[in-house]
Amino acid sequence: AHNNVFISYHPAFAWRAHWMKPVMRMDWMRLGRLLRGTWPEPFPPISQNHPSPLPASIAFDTEYNPWTRELHRYSIGYRHYDDARVFVIEASDMIVSPRPMPTNIIMQNAEADWPYLTSVFGHIPETWDDTMFAHSVLYGTLRHSLDFMGSLYARHNRWKHLQQSDPLVYSGMDALATYDIWQQLARELHRDPASRDLYEHELKPLLPHVMARPSVRLNAMHIAEAAQELEREQQVIEQRGQAVAGWPLNVSSA
């Protein structure tokens, strides 16, 4: 006989950390899928060719050098009905030519992937969605990393530890998990029109401004005055802390 261990938060934890209630609810829902044998799904096979033709909606993810911005590989994930399709293309095999663009591209942190859309597809998509943006609107107190959201919404088990040992699976699952996460978040946004409007009309329009990285003019005199005031406040707090504690304290090292 095989013994399975399912780890989650104790229900009483919700009384102390009420913001974790959605996480606990999703954990218990996944437990039901585990008992029915529908979770986790095995990792699907990965193709190393660019898919053609593309469906109307895909998830897109990139791996690149954060210092030089050189693209290493990109991955595409989607589902045809319920069948997972995953493609990972190394930069050395990438053919830079215009390709048919899907109607909608789903990304996790669009700011990171956006610069590579033109080099892969030849132009930008008609519409796009960002799982990190959507999750931050729905659950502002929770983490918005792909690893965390994948632990709640993805249909396969964790994969982020495979970055060095199996980079193809790591990259491919980043894309497929992003696709699966968005399917769930889209349903939640549909049930919450206020959050959906905030996501569509307030948050998404900020991306072009973020990508432009506008410079900010600073007043050197005001900055110097503020720094001096901060130092004075720190000294006062430090002296009060020493008086209460009875021994020397260094607030700046806290």
Structure description:
With 254 residues, the chain is α/β, with parallel strands linked by helices. The chain contains 10 helices and 6 strands, in the order H-H-E-E-E-E-E-H-H-E-H-H-H-H-H-H. A 6-stranded mixed beta sheet has the order 1-4-3-2-5-6. The mean pLDDT is 87.
Please tally the β strands and state the result. Answer: 6
Question: Strand order across the biggest sheet?
Answer: 1-4-3-2-5-6
Described by strand count, sense and barrel closure, the largest sheet is: 6 strands, mixed
Level of helix content? 40-55%
Uncertain regions spanning at least 5 consecutive residues: none
Range of strand content: 5-15%
Structural class: alpha/beta
C-alpha-based Rg, rounded: 23 Å
List the helices and strands and how they pair.
Blueprint: H1 13-16, H2 21-36, E1 46-47, E2 57-64, E3 71-80, E4 83-90, E5 104-107, H3 110-113, H4 117-121, E6 127-130, H5 131-138, H6 146-153, H7 167-191, H8 193-203, H9 207-212, H10 220-245
Parallel strand pairs: 1-4, 2-5, 5-6
Antiparallel strand pairs: 2-3, 3-4
